[in-house]
């Protein structure tokens, strides 16, 4: 990548690179793109996502592997 800086097209402030993925010939490959602008005075500003340490990041699956209620066994 070298030392080239990537800038916001609206305000010119440097932005960081983020990794996205794309599928090429059946394989997922990384694709580096410009990240969101962090300048609050910019028209393209994207506020950081709120982080709540009490809330789980994603729902957890049932450890038993059951997808829902099961029917009672036949007698």
From TrEMBL:
Disordered: annotated span: 38-75
Domain of life: Bacteria
Name of this chain's protein: Uncharacterized protein
């Amino acid at each position: 990548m070298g030392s080239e800086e990537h800038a916001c097209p609206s305000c010119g402030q440097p932005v960081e690179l983020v990794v996205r993925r794309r599928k090429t010939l059946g394989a997922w490959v990384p694709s580096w793109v410009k990240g969101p602008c962090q300048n609050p005075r910019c028209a393209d500003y994207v506020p950081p996502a709120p982080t709540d340490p009490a809330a789980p990041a994603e729902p957890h699956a049932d450890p038993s592997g059951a997808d829902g209620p099961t029917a009672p066994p036949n007698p």
